Structures are given as C-alpha cells and as structure tokens.
Amino acid sequence: MIAFVKGTVSYITEQQAIIDCNGIGYAVNAAPSTLSRLPRNGEDCLLHTHMQVKEDDMSLYGFLNREELRLFRLFIGISGIGPKVALAILSVMSPEQIQNAIASGDAVAFSKVSGVGKKTAQRITLELTDKIKLEEASPQATTMENSEKQDAIEGLIALGYSRSESFKAVLSVATEDMPASEIIRQSLKKLV
C-alpha cells in the first residue's frame, strides 16, 4: 500500500498528476479541484494516496489532505460508487459540505453531482449517516492516537462487525490505559 507520494510535480493532465519521486514518475489520479490546487511543474508536493488494485489495473488516487482521502474511502465503500464518482463528488463539494449534507440527510446535494442519481444520493446519505454523526460526536474516535482503542476497533471489524458498530462499542466501554484485548472483550458483551 502506498500511503503518500512526495516528490516534484512533473506535469498535470486533466485527470492525473505525474509526480517524480527520485526518478520514478507516479501517475496519481485526482479530482480536478485537487489538480488545480497543486504546485506548478517542478515544485515539490505531497499527495495522500489510496491504491486500488484490480485484476487488470493498479491505480493511485491522490488527495491534498487526509480528510479528503477518508471521505473518498467512505464513498468507494458504498455499493455502486466507484473511484470516478467519488472523485466527482470531492471535486464539486468540500469535505465540510459533504459532512453537513450527510449529517442533515440532504441527498439533493449529492444528486447535483454528475454521475450521481437520486437513488445513489439517497444511498450515500443513508449509509454514511451513522459514520459521519458518530465521528462528529466523537472526533477523537476518528483521529485517535490511542493504539489500544484503534486495535480494538480493527479487531471487532475483523470479527465481522461494521466500523460504526465497532466505534460505538469501543467508545462505550474503553477507559484510559485499558488493553485492546479487554476493550474487545467488553465490547463483545455490548454487541451480543
């Protein structure tokens, strides 16, 4: 997994930035709004990336900040939404507008994006409402540096629970300095 690409902007096309990283040119797909904010050719930049590997393709998608990357990953996790539609949404709407639209259930805001129909817009607001509201109510949960809590969440997800269920359970039982194994054990009591 390539977490970020840091290098010199070689050139920018309509859909990609070619970033020279010590003599290797990475083609990074990005939203037009991201590409327009990149430095000029020959200047240094850093793009947070999502690497998608398919049977016949391997692609990098780049973002100027981790919040855009997080939203992109949430979008592509929804059935029927691929990277192109996710980039289209991020090109038209800012992360704040996206979060507000999801939190308020405003599907119309998403249906204005090219490639997003009424049903897809409703699916976005429906599937992401819990995740966005949970994260807004508890910002430390999304950016938690506490590796024990994060490990517990990942452990619950590996056991088949959704990210939303895992966040809620961990936040309801975890105390400071509690080991991940105990957090998982206590969370499972809540989830069963």
How would you characterize the overall build of this protein?
- With about 190 residues, the chain is an alpha+beta fold.
- The protein folds into three domains: about 5-65, Beta Barrel (OB fold (Dihydrolipoamide Acetyltransferase, E2P)), CATH 2.40.50.140; about 65-130, Orthogonal Bundle (DNA polymerase, domain 1), CATH 1.10.150.20; about 140-190, Helicase, Ruva Protein, domain 3 (Orthogonal Bundle).
- It contains ten helices and five strands; from the N terminus they run βββαββααααααααα.
- The protein has helices at about 30-35, 65-75, 85-90, 95-105, 105-110, 120-135, 140, 145-160, 165-175, 180-190, and strands at about 5-10, 15-20, 25-30, 45-55, 60-65.
- Strands 1-2-3-5-4 form a five-stranded mixed barrel.
- Helix 2 (about 65-75) crosses helix 3 (about 85-90), helix 8 crosses helix 9 and helix 8 (about 145-160) packs across helix 10.
- The longest helix has 20 residues, at about 120-135.
- The chain is globular.
- It starts with a strand and ends with a helix.
- Mean pLDDT is about 90; it is low at about 135-145.
Helix-strand sequence:
EEEHEEHHHHHHHHH
The separation of the N and C termini measures: 34 Å
Q: What is the radius of gyration?
A: 19 Å
Strand content: 15-25%
Low-confidence stretches: 137-145
**What portion of residues is helical?**
40-55%
> In CATH terms, what is the architecture of the largest domain?
Orthogonal Bundle
Q: What would the average pLDDT be, to the nearest integer?
A: 88
Q: By CATH's scheme, which homologous superfamily of the largest domain applies?
A: 5' to 3' exonuclease, C-terminal subdomain
CATH domain class of the largest domain:
Mainly Alpha
The number of helices is: 10
